[in-house]
DNA sequence: CCTTTTATGTATCGATCAATAAAAAATAAC
DNA sequence: GTTATTTTTTATTGATCGATACATAAAAGG
């Protein structure tokens, strides 16, 4: 049964995708409501009735990004067959996603509001939490790898996770600076080679024959 | 001999430091002229007479940052005794500088205007060139290290330089997200360990006895 | 002194910011 | 058809944006 009043003549997800594109290219602060209404094809009152405010719109855009635009970079980490596969996936998938020709370069979550002051504090905090969670996701996978025996006991999983997330966040800057897919993939491959070298177990000491 | 008219009652460099602090914390776009006049203690006409425009002020702030605020992260690369020392210096000095308690966290050049659209295109381009130059500085040092025999012939200097600059740029994001000096230094040390592992020459084949 | 020159303080410019008021339009319930 | 409900359209709102006009103040040159 349709609702009582006049039906809206736009699809919520369709216009959210338009908003995502604008926020992704221009960041939160520099995207004006005029930019959004133009891109979404809505008059301001329709936009505010549907999404509440610029900040509320961005929150919904961020959810859409995580569902469809985030490209599954981080979601696959927990289910990956090994820590190495998780690292390879994150780095290479990032290189691909950040150079996708149909999308703005780099990651919305890294690039949309890097200032600690200035942009809406709530927006900054949400994005910061997403970035911090990237580290946790990696760390937890690495800890499991230690328990599984893939990684040596005593491996500093927090340090490795922070290091890799930092590299991946830097790849957004690189992409935004115009790097092509080959350059991004080169960084990913170098990072993966570094991973292999970092976590290679030193030759196990000969077991005590006694 | 003093100039003809009424002397200005502020020191150019002193107020530039105030402006640097504001731009560093809030980025180019979200810093308003009202923020700047308040922090610098100037009325708008004095500010415009001295610096021309917000963009002109930022250009001078950027020069000041490179001279005094940049902390000598990249300047020492060309003169470093070895490629490894250059890498160690860049990573560790960044960890220190990005967590200096008297300064905003992270690097102005990475954080001030990450959007490709939106902020003044000229400002974005200047910052982008600085970041790109970071890669070149590293690459050139690595190429010299290959010529010196420190690095193996055939080493992909461009890939290594891009990888390390990407890591260093990511450290600004990490710092802006609140990481303390220990966390930043952990990333630096991990990156340095990765460097050592990446460039370690495979054992040289036994020289042909003939 | 008076003129010239430069900097300052006050007040404000038009443009744009995010967000709305009010009325007309389009549907369902009755 | 009439009413109730919701969306759309049009036209603005006060606030803030970067940047200035204008008059005054403070110095040097004559």
Which of globular, elongated, flat, extended, rod-shaped describes the shape of chain A?
Answer: elongated
CATH class of the largest domain in chain A: Mainly Alpha
Pairing-aware structural class of the strands and helices of chain A? mainly alpha
Mean pLDDT of chain A: 92
Protein name (chains A, B): TetR family transcriptional regulator
Pfam family, one (chains A, B): TetR_C_13
Domain HTH tetR-type (chains A, B): 9-69
Organism (chains A, B): Alloalcanivorax balearicus MACL04
What does this structure look like?
The structure is a homodimer of 210-residue chains. Chain A is mostly helical and 210 residues long. In chain A, 66% of the residues lie in helices and 0% in strands. Chain A folds into 2 domains: 12-67, Arc Repressor Mutant, subunit A (Orthogonal Bundle); 71-199, Tetracycline Repressor, domain 2 (Orthogonal Bundle), CATH 1.10.357. Chain A has helices spanning 12-30, 33-40, 44-51, 54-69, 83-98, 108-111, 121-148, 157-176, 181-199. In chain A, helix 7 (121-148) crosses helix 8 (157-176). The longest helix of chain A is centred in the middle third of the chain and has 28 residues, at 121-148. Chain A is elongated. The model of chain A has no long low-confidence stretch (mean pLDDT 92). At the A-B interface, helix 1, helix 7, helix 8 and helix 9 of A face helix 1, helix 7, helix 8 and helix 9 of B. The structure holds a DNA duplex (30 and 30 nucleotides). Chains A, B: Keywords: DNA-binding, Transcription, Transcription regulation. Chains A, B: InterPro entries: DNA-bd_HTH_TetR-type_CS, Homeodomain-like_sf, HTH_TetR, Tet_transcr_reg_TetR-rel_C_sf, TetR_C. Chains A, B: Residues 32-51 bind DNA. Chains A, B: It comes from Alloalcanivorax balearicus MACL04.
């Amino acid at each position: 049964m349709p609702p009582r009043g006049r039906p809206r003549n736009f699809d919520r997800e369709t216009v959210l995708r338009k908003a995502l594109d604008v926020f992704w290219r221009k960041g939160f602060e520099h995207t004006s409501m005029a930019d959004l209404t133009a891109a979404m094809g809505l008059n301001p009152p329709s936009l505010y009735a549907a999404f509440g405010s610029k900040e509320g719109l961005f929150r919904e855009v961020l959810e859409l990004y995580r569902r469809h635009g985030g490209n599954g970079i981080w979601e696959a980490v927990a289910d990956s067959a090994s820590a190495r596969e998780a690292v390879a996936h994150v780095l290479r998938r990032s290189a691909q996603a950040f150079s996708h020709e149909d999308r703005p370069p780099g990651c919305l979550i890294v690039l949309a509001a890097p200032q600690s002051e200035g942009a809406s504090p709530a927006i900054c905090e949400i994005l910061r939490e997403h970035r911090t969670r990237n580290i946790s996701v990696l760390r937890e996978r690495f800890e499991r790898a230690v328990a599984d025996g893939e990684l040596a006991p005593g491996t500093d999983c927090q340090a490795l996770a922070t290091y890799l997330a930092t590299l991946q966040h830097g790849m957004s800057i690189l992409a935004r600076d115009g790097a092509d897919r080959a350059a991004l993939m080169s960084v990913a491959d170098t990072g993966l080679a570094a991973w292999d070298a970092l976590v290679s177990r030193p030759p196990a000491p000969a077991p005590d024959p006694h």
